[in-house]
Amino acid sequence: MALASSKDTATSKGSASARDTAPARPPSRTPTRGFWSSTIGKKTVMAASGLIMLAYLVAHVAGNLKVFFGPEEFNGYAHWLRVMGAPILHHEWGLWLARIVLLAAVGAHAVSAYQLSRRDLKARPTRYAHRRKGSSYATRTMRWGGIILALFIVWHVLDLTTGTVHPGGFEEGRPYQNVIDTFSTWYGNTIYIVAMLAVGLHVRHGFWSAAQTLGVGNARRERLLRRTADVLALALTAGFIAVPVGVMTGVVN
Ligand code: HEM
Q: Which atom of ligand 1 is nearest the CA belonging to 152?
Protein backbone atom coordinates (compact mmCIF):
# COMPACT_ATOMS: atom_id res chain seq x y z
CA MET A 1 0.00 0.00 0.00
CA ALA A 2 1.32 3.41 -0.91
CA LEU A 3 0.68 4.78 2.59
CA ALA A 4 2.81 2.19 4.40
CA SER A 5 5.49 3.92 6.46
CA SER A 6 9.15 3.58 5.55
CA LYS A 7 9.70 1.77 8.86
CA ASP A 8 7.06 -0.82 7.93
CA THR A 9 8.72 -1.39 4.57
CA ALA A 10 12.17 -1.67 6.04
CA THR A 11 11.31 -4.13 8.80
CA SER A 12 8.58 -6.26 7.21
CA LYS A 13 9.73 -9.84 6.57
CA GLY A 14 6.57 -11.43 5.04
CA SER A 15 6.09 -12.34 1.37
CA ALA A 16 4.99 -9.65 -1.08
CA SER A 17 1.41 -10.96 -1.28
CA ALA A 18 1.07 -11.27 2.49
CA ARG A 19 2.34 -7.69 2.80
CA ASP A 20 -0.23 -6.46 0.30
CA THR A 21 -3.19 -8.03 2.09
CA ALA A 22 -2.06 -7.56 5.70
CA PRO A 23 -3.80 -4.75 7.61
CA ALA A 24 -1.62 -1.74 8.41
CA ARG A 25 0.38 -2.43 11.57
CA PRO A 26 -0.05 0.06 14.41
CA PRO A 27 3.04 2.19 14.97
CA SER A 28 5.51 0.53 17.33
CA ARG A 29 5.02 1.55 20.99
CA THR A 30 7.18 1.68 24.05
CA PRO A 31 5.99 -0.66 26.83
CA THR A 32 4.84 2.38 28.85
CA ARG A 33 2.74 3.75 25.99
CA GLY A 34 1.32 0.32 25.28
CA PHE A 35 0.40 -0.11 28.94
CA TRP A 36 -1.20 3.35 29.17
CA SER A 37 -3.25 2.92 26.00
CA SER A 38 -4.67 -0.46 27.09
CA THR A 39 -7.89 -0.58 29.10
CA ILE A 40 -6.25 -2.67 31.82
CA GLY A 41 -3.36 -0.17 31.96
CA LYS A 42 -5.75 2.73 32.55
CA LYS A 43 -7.67 0.73 35.15
CA THR A 44 -4.39 -0.07 36.93
CA VAL A 45 -3.49 3.64 36.94
CA MET A 46 -6.95 4.39 38.39
CA ALA A 47 -6.52 1.74 41.08
CA ALA A 48 -3.01 2.82 42.08
CA SER A 49 -3.81 6.57 42.14
CA GLY A 50 -7.06 5.83 44.02
CA LEU A 51 -5.12 3.90 46.67
CA ILE A 52 -2.68 6.82 47.10
CA MET A 53 -5.61 9.19 47.67
CA LEU A 54 -7.25 6.70 50.02
CA ALA A 55 -4.06 6.56 52.11
CA TYR A 56 -4.17 10.37 52.29
CA LEU A 57 -7.83 10.30 53.38
CA VAL A 58 -7.13 7.78 56.15
CA ALA A 59 -4.31 10.00 57.47
CA HIS A 60 -6.45 13.14 57.02
CA VAL A 61 -9.45 11.81 58.93
CA ALA A 62 -7.20 10.64 61.77
CA GLY A 63 -5.62 14.11 61.91
CA ASN A 64 -9.01 15.86 61.77
CA LEU A 65 -10.28 13.90 64.76
CA LYS A 66 -7.62 15.66 66.84
CA VAL A 67 -10.04 18.60 66.80
CA PHE A 68 -11.82 16.83 69.69
CA PHE A 69 -8.66 17.15 71.81
CA GLY A 70 -8.62 20.94 71.67
CA PRO A 71 -6.95 23.76 69.72
CA GLU A 72 -3.38 23.05 70.84
CA GLU A 73 -3.46 19.45 69.72
CA PHE A 74 -5.13 20.28 66.38
CA ASN A 75 -3.01 23.33 65.55
CA GLY A 76 0.09 21.39 66.59
CA TYR A 77 -0.78 18.65 64.14
CA ALA A 78 -1.33 21.21 61.34
CA HIS A 79 2.06 22.70 62.18
CA TRP A 80 3.66 19.26 62.09
CA LEU A 81 2.23 18.76 58.57
CA ARG A 82 4.13 21.85 57.47
CA VAL A 83 7.46 20.89 58.97
CA MET A 84 7.38 17.09 58.54
CA GLY A 85 10.51 15.87 56.86
CA ALA A 86 12.29 19.08 57.84
CA PRO A 87 15.27 17.24 59.34
CA ILE A 88 15.96 15.62 55.94
CA LEU A 89 14.36 18.06 53.54
CA HIS A 90 14.24 21.84 53.57
CA HIS A 91 11.46 23.54 55.60
CA GLU A 92 7.99 22.74 54.12
CA TRP A 93 9.45 20.57 51.35
CA GLY A 94 7.91 17.49 52.94
CA LEU A 95 4.49 19.10 52.62
CA TRP A 96 5.15 20.15 49.04
CA LEU A 97 6.35 16.66 48.14
CA ALA A 98 3.11 15.21 49.55
CA ARG A 99 1.09 17.84 47.66
CA ILE A 100 2.83 17.02 44.36
CA VAL A 101 2.25 13.27 44.78
CA LEU A 102 -1.40 13.93 45.66
CA LEU A 103 -1.91 16.29 42.75
CA ALA A 104 -0.33 13.79 40.34
CA ALA A 105 -2.63 11.08 41.73
CA VAL A 106 -5.72 13.28 41.28
CA GLY A 107 -4.64 14.14 37.71
CA ALA A 108 -3.88 10.53 36.72
CA HIS A 109 -7.16 9.36 38.28
CA ALA A 110 -9.24 11.98 36.47
CA VAL A 111 -7.57 11.55 33.06
CA SER A 112 -7.86 7.75 33.10
CA ALA A 113 -11.49 7.95 34.32
CA TYR A 114 -12.34 10.32 31.47
CA GLN A 115 -10.59 8.22 28.84
CA LEU A 116 -12.14 4.97 30.10
CA SER A 117 -15.60 6.49 30.00
CA ARG A 118 -15.02 7.79 26.41
CA ARG A 119 -13.83 4.35 25.41
CA ASP A 120 -16.87 2.77 27.02
CA LEU A 121 -19.23 5.13 25.16
CA LYS A 122 -17.55 4.44 21.80
CA ALA A 123 -17.66 0.68 22.29
CA ARG A 124 -21.41 0.70 22.94
CA PRO A 125 -23.35 -0.49 19.89
CA THR A 126 -26.68 1.23 20.74
CA ARG A 127 -25.22 4.62 21.34
CA TYR A 128 -28.33 6.69 20.97
CA ALA A 129 -31.28 4.32 21.31
CA HIS A 130 -30.94 3.42 25.00
CA ARG A 131 -28.33 5.80 26.20
CA ARG A 132 -29.71 6.12 29.72
CA LYS A 133 -29.73 2.39 30.23
CA GLY A 134 -26.21 2.13 28.84
CA SER A 135 -24.20 3.02 31.90
CA SER A 136 -24.86 1.13 35.09
CA TYR A 137 -26.00 2.73 38.32
CA ALA A 138 -22.52 2.21 39.80
CA THR A 139 -20.79 3.83 36.81
CA ARG A 140 -23.02 6.88 36.96
CA THR A 141 -22.62 7.18 40.74
CA MET A 142 -18.84 6.99 40.37
CA ARG A 143 -18.81 9.57 37.58
CA TRP A 144 -20.97 12.09 39.46
CA GLY A 145 -19.33 11.30 42.78
CA GLY A 146 -15.92 11.98 41.22
CA ILE A 147 -17.08 15.31 39.78
CA ILE A 148 -18.63 16.36 43.12
CA LEU A 149 -15.42 15.43 44.95
CA ALA A 150 -13.19 17.30 42.50
CA LEU A 151 -15.32 20.45 42.96
CA PHE A 152 -15.34 19.92 46.72
CA ILE A 153 -11.53 19.66 46.90
CA VAL A 154 -11.15 22.98 45.03
CA TRP A 155 -13.61 24.66 47.43
CA HIS A 156 -12.05 22.99 50.47
CA VAL A 157 -8.51 24.15 49.62
CA LEU A 158 -9.80 27.70 48.96
CA ASP A 159 -11.65 27.53 52.28
CA LEU A 160 -9.14 26.02 54.72
CA THR A 161 -5.71 26.16 53.05
CA THR A 162 -5.63 29.52 51.24
CA GLY A 163 -8.61 31.10 53.03
CA THR A 164 -9.87 32.69 49.77
CA VAL A 165 -13.54 31.69 50.28
CA HIS A 166 -13.34 31.25 54.04
CA PRO A 167 -16.30 32.59 56.07
CA GLY A 168 -15.06 35.00 58.74
CA GLY A 169 -11.45 36.12 58.99
CA PHE A 170 -9.11 33.33 57.92
CA GLU A 171 -6.21 32.95 60.32
CA GLU A 172 -3.05 31.43 58.90
CA GLY A 173 -1.62 28.78 61.23
CA ARG A 174 -4.82 28.55 63.31
CA PRO A 175 -6.84 25.82 61.58
CA TYR A 176 -8.86 25.03 64.73
CA GLN A 177 -10.55 28.42 64.61
CA ASN A 178 -10.88 28.22 60.82
CA VAL A 179 -12.65 24.86 61.04
CA ILE A 180 -15.08 26.26 63.63
CA ASP A 181 -15.83 29.25 61.36
CA THR A 182 -16.62 26.98 58.41
CA PHE A 183 -18.91 24.71 60.41
CA SER A 184 -20.72 27.66 61.93
CA THR A 185 -22.37 28.35 58.56
CA TRP A 186 -25.29 26.33 57.18
CA TYR A 187 -23.71 26.15 53.71
CA GLY A 188 -20.34 25.03 55.09
CA ASN A 189 -22.03 22.15 56.88
CA THR A 190 -24.17 21.27 53.85
CA ILE A 191 -21.25 21.27 51.38
CA TYR A 192 -19.06 19.17 53.69
CA ILE A 193 -21.72 16.64 54.65
CA VAL A 194 -22.77 16.08 51.02
CA ALA A 195 -19.09 15.70 50.04
CA MET A 196 -18.42 13.24 52.90
CA LEU A 197 -21.34 11.06 51.77
CA ALA A 198 -19.88 11.20 48.24
CA VAL A 199 -16.47 10.18 49.67
CA GLY A 200 -18.04 7.14 51.34
CA LEU A 201 -19.88 5.96 48.22
CA HIS A 202 -16.86 6.61 46.01
CA VAL A 203 -14.41 4.81 48.30
CA ARG A 204 -16.74 1.84 48.77
CA HIS A 205 -17.16 1.15 45.07
CA GLY A 206 -13.69 2.39 44.10
CA PHE A 207 -11.84 0.20 46.58
CA TRP A 208 -13.73 -2.83 45.36
CA SER A 209 -13.08 -1.97 41.68
CA ALA A 210 -9.37 -1.50 42.45
CA ALA A 211 -9.27 -4.91 44.12
CA GLN A 212 -10.83 -6.47 41.03
CA THR A 213 -8.39 -4.73 38.69
CA LEU A 214 -5.39 -5.78 40.74
CA GLY A 215 -6.68 -9.35 41.11
CA VAL A 216 -8.97 -10.55 43.87
CA GLY A 217 -7.67 -14.11 44.05
CA ASN A 218 -10.39 -16.31 45.48
CA ALA A 219 -13.92 -16.20 46.91
CA ARG A 220 -12.74 -15.93 50.52
CA ARG A 221 -10.49 -13.01 49.72
CA GLU A 222 -13.29 -11.44 47.68
CA ARG A 223 -15.57 -11.46 50.74
CA LEU A 224 -12.80 -9.99 52.88
CA LEU A 225 -12.11 -7.20 50.37
CA ARG A 226 -15.81 -6.35 50.09
CA ARG A 227 -16.04 -6.15 53.86
CA THR A 228 -12.87 -3.99 53.97
CA ALA A 229 -14.40 -1.61 51.40
CA ASP A 230 -17.58 -1.29 53.51
CA VAL A 231 -15.69 -0.69 56.77
CA LEU A 232 -13.28 1.83 55.20
CA ALA A 233 -16.10 3.79 53.57
CA LEU A 234 -18.16 3.87 56.74
CA ALA A 235 -15.22 4.81 58.99
CA LEU A 236 -14.12 7.63 56.65
CA THR A 237 -17.61 9.08 56.26
CA ALA A 238 -18.40 8.86 59.98
CA GLY A 239 -14.98 10.22 60.98
CA PHE A 240 -15.17 13.21 58.64
CA ILE A 241 -18.82 13.99 59.48
CA ALA A 242 -18.02 13.87 63.21
CA VAL A 243 -16.17 17.20 62.86
CA PRO A 244 -19.06 19.38 61.58
CA VAL A 245 -21.43 17.54 63.93
CA GLY A 246 -19.03 18.25 66.81
CA VAL A 247 -19.05 21.97 65.98
CA MET A 248 -22.82 22.11 65.41
CA THR A 249 -23.54 20.45 68.76
CA GLY A 250 -21.07 22.66 70.61
CA VAL A 251 -18.77 19.74 71.60
CA VAL A 252 -16.03 21.51 69.62
CA ASN A 253 -16.04 25.21 70.38
C1 HEM B 1 -14.72 17.34 58.08
C2 HEM B 1 -13.95 17.14 57.05
C3 HEM B 1 -12.63 17.82 56.82
C4 HEM B 1 -11.95 18.74 57.58
C5 HEM B 1 -12.33 19.33 58.92
C6 HEM B 1 -10.73 19.05 56.88
C7 HEM B 1 -9.78 19.94 57.33
C8 HEM B 1 -8.71 20.39 56.59
C9 HEM B 1 -7.82 21.46 56.97
C10 HEM B 1 -7.88 22.23 58.28
C11 HEM B 1 -6.93 21.62 55.97
C12 HEM B 1 -5.83 22.67 55.87
C13 HEM B 1 -4.54 22.18 56.45
C14 HEM B 1 -3.55 23.32 56.47
O15 HEM B 1 -3.37 24.00 55.44
O16 HEM B 1 -2.99 23.55 57.53
C17 HEM B 1 -7.26 20.66 54.94
C18 HEM B 1 -6.57 20.50 53.76
C19 HEM B 1 -6.90 19.59 52.79
N20 HEM B 1 -7.92 18.67 52.81
FE21 HEM B 1 -9.27 18.49 54.27
N22 HEM B 1 -10.69 18.33 55.72
C23 HEM B 1 -11.84 17.56 55.65
C24 HEM B 1 -12.19 16.69 54.64
C25 HEM B 1 -11.46 16.47 53.50
C26 HEM B 1 -11.82 15.54 52.45
C27 HEM B 1 -13.05 14.66 52.44
C28 HEM B 1 -10.85 15.62 51.49
C29 HEM B 1 -10.73 14.90 50.17
C30 HEM B 1 -11.71 14.33 49.52
C31 HEM B 1 -9.90 16.59 51.94
C32 HEM B 1 -8.78 16.96 51.24
C33 HEM B 1 -7.91 17.95 51.62
C34 HEM B 1 -6.82 18.42 50.81
C35 HEM B 1 -6.44 17.89 49.42
C36 HEM B 1 -6.18 19.45 51.52
C37 HEM B 1 -5.01 20.29 51.07
C38 HEM B 1 -3.73 19.87 51.71
C39 HEM B 1 -2.70 20.92 51.41
O40 HEM B 1 -2.20 20.93 50.30
O41 HEM B 1 -2.43 21.74 52.28
N42 HEM B 1 -10.28 17.06 53.16
N43 HEM B 1 -8.34 19.92 55.34
A: 30
